[in-house]
Every structure is written in structure tokens, then in C-alpha cells.
Amino acid sequence: MDLTKKEKAMLDGEMGEACAKAMEILVAVGKIYGAENMVPVGSVQVAGVSYKTIGDAGIEFLKGFADIGAKCVVPAYLNPAGMDLSAWEGMGVPKEFAHKQLEIVRLYEKMGVKSTCTCAPYQIGIVPKLGEHLAWSESSAVCYANSVLGARTNRESGMSALAAALCGVTPNFGLHLEGNRKAGIVFELECGLKDRYDYAVLGAYAGKIAGERNPAFVPKKQIKKPTSDMLKLLGAAMAATGAVALFNFKGATPEFAVKDGAEKITVEQKMADETMARMNSGQEPELIAIGCPHCSLDEIREIAGKVKGRKLGAKKLWVCTSKVTKMAADAKGYSKIIEEAGGRIVADTCMVVCPIEQMGFGVTGTDSGKAAQYLPGFCKQKVVFKRLEEML
Q1: Percent of the chain topping pLDDT 70
Q2: Which sign does the torsion angle of CA 288, 292, 295, 299 carry?
Q3: Deepest in the core among 92, 152, 192, 238, taking most CB within 10 A?
Q4: Contact 372/383 with Cβ under 8 angstroms?
Q5: Are 384 and 283 in contact (CB under 8 A)?
């Protein structure tokens, strides 16, 4: 690879052992994917935070870097942890898990990674500019950054993202390059799209077909311009059912470019209905978990409106979000309304990376295509994949 003088100095250990190890990782990744050089990044988002996903081996890896003085040189932010860091006891998280989780967050903080613990950093003021290069790792965050914001990032591993945070650069390949950002498949939409759930269903359907290709969406009937939350759920579902890291939506995303000869598929309502049926494996949810990706303040306001004056009874309701958004919801009174109904706003985590299978839950309800895809295998759950109001 064509490294700058500074990058060579990092690799040679002139800037410390941790920086050298990190640059070794980045160079190895670059060589695997044919990158000719590195590109500076404006920010890093690090996955591999929940103890459920990284275990004791992950803790040892992080200790290895922290103990040799690893420090971030660009702004770096954490993906969700496996629990609400300040209210885990009320959630029912096992103590042993909690202690391991707190150790993981402490190690990241020691290296200078901010414990934002959200998969939607763009909702708490971390909004990259159009064309800005990033090293983000959480699949839905990557998809949103590329698609809705027009920034540029590959889907980094937790390890390569941390390495990028320590060196300030990432290998220049894939979606960092203009020529790789065109759509290879076009979905012509004849189906109805009226709310967030419809976009989650569309994403669950389209991701399975698109695979690693960049999809484009073209409405064939008049629809309202999708909100950022709708696009968030669309991209998250495609990243989970496929490996989509960039999509175009005509009239709603800053980029719209399609390859010559791209495959075209017409999406009819029956295809969406079949997707809903396929992803539903449960009857009555024991836990209703909303916020995968994390809920925005607008979504929390809508949820509060739907549960106001109701009593959930034996059902548990989690509204998953960042600690920053939870504070805003507290101030607006939305948290109180949700709590009075029997639910709770859960910060720092989500139903997928929390050890819900150890906490007595076997059937989880969600309106997220991403969560519906991951919950059966990763959390041993039967899934109710419906609109919130249909599960209450």
C-alpha cells in the first residue's frame, strides 16, 4: 500500500506500540481488499461492545490495547452495550453479566472512546457531512450514514474500527470510492408505504434479494416523502436480512445513481404480506421491544401517544434509545406516560444485544425488521413482528 510518511511512522512503531498494532490491522485489511492507500476519517463508531457478543476473549483483546496506552486520535463512539448502564438491576440483567459489561465500557473509555452506547449516533448530534469519510461498524449506522447522509464508510469490524480510531485513517476501498456507490438492483414500488413498519417490512424483503448489492427504490405510485426514521428502519432491515450498506431512494436520499443493466424488480403488496407472515413465529409477546435501531425523540413521542391511558398488564414494554434521547424524553414527559402504562425507556442497549434469553423471555414482539431477523438465532426468541398498536 502507498502509505504517507506519518502512516509509515505509525506502522514502524514511532508513535507507540498500540498505534503500530492498529496500523498493522489496517494495512492487513487494506491488502485483503486491494486498497491502494489510506483515507483520513472524521469519526469512528465502534461495535463489539456487549459482553453477549464479545465475551471474555473480547475483554482480553481490549485489555491488551488499553494496557499499552492506546488512545483515540479522532472522535470515536460506542455501539449499544448489553444493558442500561445505570439501570441494569431494574431490567433484571444478571449480576455477573453486568460486572463484565461495565468492565468493557471502562476499557473503551480508558482508550478515549465515548460511551454513547447507541446504534444511531446521528440522532444525538453526531452527523457527518456529505462526502465525509468515516470508519463506522454497526450495520444500520453504516447504512444510514452512507444512504441518508451521503457520507462514506465501509462496514468495519469492531477491531478495524478501533484501529481506525487509534490511527485516524482507514483503508480506501469499497464505498469510499465513487465508482462503487451505484445501485446494482432497482426495486419499483407498487406496495403501500404509509408508516415506519411498512418500511421495515420492505427492508426485510429487499435485503434478502439484494444481498451485497446496493439497491435503489423507485415509487411507482404517489407516496409521502419518507422520514428519516422510516429510512432508518428500511436500511437496518436490509443490513440484517442481506448485507446492504448503501441504498438510494428516489426523491429522498442525496445520491441516486444506477448501474447500466441493473436488475429491476416490481414489489407488490403480496410480497410484503408474505414477508410479514414469514417473519412471525410467535403469538403473544412476553416482551415488546421497540427501538432497533434506537428510537428517536419523535418515535418516543408517538409511542407515548399510543400507550397513554393504557395498562399493559403482564406484558413488558421496552423503548430502547440512547441516554441522550432518554434525557430529552424525560424532560418532555414522554417517559412518565410510558412508565404509567407499565413500560420503561431503556438506554444504552437493545433487545438484540441484551441477554433476554437469560432473563426469562421466550417470545419478543417488535416492529423492527432487523430485530425480527436476529432475535430467533441470536436470542433464541419466537418473534411477533407487527405494529406496536397490534401487540399492546
Answers
A1: 100
A2: negative
A3: 238
A4: yes
A5: yes
Contact status, residue 119 vs residue 80, Cβ threshold 8 Å: yes
Is the domain defined by 280-391 classed in CATH 3.30.499.10? yes
Domain 5-178: give its CATH architecture.
2-Layer Sandwich (3.30)
Task: Give residue 282's pLDDT band: very low, low, confident or very high (50, 70, 90).
Answer: confident
Q: Can you give the residue ranges of every domain in the chain?
A: 5-178, 182-276, 280-391
Please state, in angstroms and rounded to a whole number, the distance separating the CA atoms of residues 142 and 138. 6
In contact, 116 and 124? CB cutoff 8 Å: yes
Q: Is the pLDDT of residue 337 over 90?
A: yes
Single-letter amino acid code for the residue at 184: G
Residue 66 CB neighbour total at 10 angstroms: 17
Grid cell of 2 as nine digits: 502507498
Q: How many CB atoms lie within 10 A of CB 63?
A: 14
Q: Is the pLDDT of residue 26 over 90?
A: yes
- Phi/psi-derived region of residue 43, left when phi > 0, alpha when psi is between -120 and 50, beta in every other case: beta
pTM over 0.85: yes
DSSP, res 170? E
Strand pairing report for 248-249 and 44-46: unpaired
Distances in Å between the alpha carbon of 286 and those of 289, 359, 366, 392?
Answer: 10, 11, 11, 11
pLDDT digits (tens, 9 = 90+) for 121-163: 999 999 999 999 999 999 999 999 999 999 999 999 999 999 9
Cβ–Cβ < 8 Å for 132, 121: no
Nearest to 80, CA basis, from 374, 362, 359, 351: 351
Could you tell me whether strands 382-385 and 316-321 are parallel, antiparallel, or unpaired per DSSP bridges? unpaired
Give alpha helix (H) positions in the chain: 5-11, 17-32, 51-66, 88-91, 95-110, 139-147, 158-167, 196-210, 228-241, 269-279, 297-307, 323-332, 334-340, 369-379, 388-391
Q: What pLDDT band is residue 61 in, cutting at 50, 70 and 90?
A: very high
Q: At 142, phi and psi to the nearest 5?
A: -60, -45
Count of positions (residues) in the chain: 392
Q: Do domains 5-178 and 280-391 have the same CATH topology?
A: yes
